[in-house]
Amino acid sequence: GQQLNQSPQSMFIQEGEDVSMNCTSSSIFNTWLWYKQDPGEGPVLLIALYKAGELTSNGRLTAQFGITRKDSFLNISASIPSDVGIYFCAGLKTDRGSTLGRLYFGRGTQLTVWP
Amino acid sequence: ETGVTQTPRHLVMGMTNKKSLKCEQHLGHNAMYWYKQSAKKPLELMFVYNFKEQTENNSVPSRFSPECPNSSHLFLHLHTLQPEDSALYLCASSQDWPDATGTNEKLFFGSGTQLSVL
Prior knowledge:
The structure holds 2 protein chains of 2 kinds. By secondary structure, chain A is mainly beta. In chain A, 0% of the residues lie in helices and 56% in strands. In chain A, the strands form 2 sheets. In chain A, strands 2, 4, 5, 9, 10 and 11 form a 6-stranded mixed beta sheet that branches. A 5-stranded antiparallel beta sheet of chain A has the order 1-3-8-7-6, with no helix packed on it. In chain B, strand 5 and strand 6 form a beta hairpin. Classes of the chains: A mainly beta, B mainly beta. The interface between A and B is medium-sized, with 27 and 24 residues.
């Protein structure tokens, strides 16, 4: 299957710091999505990106669809304790010869925020 | 509350047991999914149903048996599982199967069932 390389694997930061994480692939994707998973819960969609170069914000979160369409970035500004969780990137692409899409997930970035 | 409800939240079973996981979505979606989440690994797609028809089976062992009686309900029947099957099993739904235009790509996940096989 397609591999999405998500980094870093984990981050330990202090409250108030900014956070950056990214997702890269050797394949081109049509759509990039970022999810957050709180402990004991399922992933929740944060941001969806549809065009190369697109920059979209959701509160303190900002995500970008890379120009090459092979990567995406997520930034969190002024982190707070409730930002703790696992952040997943996901890329949507169509299989060869098909109009149907398939979603591929990264391994996740575990974020810990110290007060 | 994502509109996708999974039960039970936790399940411990022996290798000879038979159990079922249940998922219900209240979003009016047509596509439903089972994912397996293991530590340090990407989410693994197991099964997809679109309009109650199974459209994907990602080489999942036969000890996992899905059932989709209607577009709002999805079950995962488990029997003779192995300890390595211990994981978080997530149900998700989307309006329809994602396509090349980038629509229907938003998955809504349930809280998952944490399964431990002894």
